[in-house]
Amino acid sequence: MTDNSELRELAESIFADARDAGTGFDAELWKTLEGTGLARLTLPSDAGGSEGSFSDAAVVLAEAGAYAARVPLVETDLLAGWLLHAAGIGVPAGPLTAVTATLDVEGSTVRGTLQRVPWARAAAGIAVLAPHHVVLLGPEQITVTDGSNLAEEPRDAVVVDGEVPSGAVAAVPEGATQEFRLRAALGRAQLLAGAARGALAAAVRYAGERVQFGRPIGRFQAVQQQLALAAAEVAAASAAASAAAAAVTADGFADPASRLAVAAAKARTGEAAGAVARIAHQVHGAIGFTREHDLRLLTTRLWAWRDEDGADAEWNSEIGAAALAAGPEGLWPLVTGRP
């Protein structure tokens, strides 16, 4: 892969050109991401991937979040593609999604209902992580009922009741359940960090343009103070997300320090989401709440994503439990990753 600065420039140019106020899957953007190798960035080449690192993925996902990209990058690359490949199931072409659920699996007969599946209506395949099986569902085997999250991203209900092709069912790989959860949280944290940065940029831009009492509102001390607070939240969120990606790139998801870093990243980016969204709307005033204003594309994602793949309280509880389990002698090595 290219180095991160070049990768960031490429991703930013792609997502900036594609940004619009639409809803649903952006097929044209996805085609571009497939063509540039960014759609399956971390997958091995035999799964159609580019063999990039999680740090590479963090760069791309942050830009996707900053420009409110309408594509299932986390679901295709970090979740479905990885899970299917790890289980020995062929990875289909096109956008994918993944979910954990309970299914009734008897041979090649699969029955069950999946709730709030991201991007299901646009997916070429749904990878389901059931308690004992990994199952690949194709569009022809399911019935989809449209749903959405607060940001109007697809979160669909899916019903399956019938036969799936040979080779579409496999045993769950060892450790896959825990890794799936960590991968989802890591990807969501990168998106949150990017969306927070995008919301801050929009607020700073508006503060420089909006004139009140003869001067831009960005010159008022109260506004400057709020923007500084938002900038601090963005910096903390970005640092936590980047540190988690670096830890996983270096040591994998099984390492205790990596698990702690992912938990901290999801908790910290979720906390920043609320603060940054509030300040961005305060700076914009009433106009920022209207459907016609692009700020909502970012703030509704911040509100929706902070509760997906584990809310702040869940991950903070996990951090606290890890610290207690480490004890006085083990806390410093746990936090630093060093003996």
UniProtKB/TrEMBL annotation:
Residues 15-87 form the Acyl-CoA dehydrogenase/oxidase N-terminal domain. It comes from the Bacteria. InterPro entries: AcylCo_DH-like_C (IPR036250), AcylCo_DH/oxidase_C (IPR009075), AcylCoA_DH/ox_N (IPR013786), AcylCoA_DH/ox_N_sf (IPR037069), AcylCoA_DH/oxidase_NM_dom_sf (IPR009100). The keyword Transmembrane does not apply. Coiled coil: none annotated. Its cofactor is FAD. Keywords: FAD, Flavoprotein, Oxidoreductase. Residues 191-300 form the Acyl-CoA dehydrogenase/oxidase C-terminal domain. Belongs to the acyl-CoA dehydrogenase family. This is Acyl-CoA dehydrogenase family protein. It comes from Pseudonocardia alaniniphila.
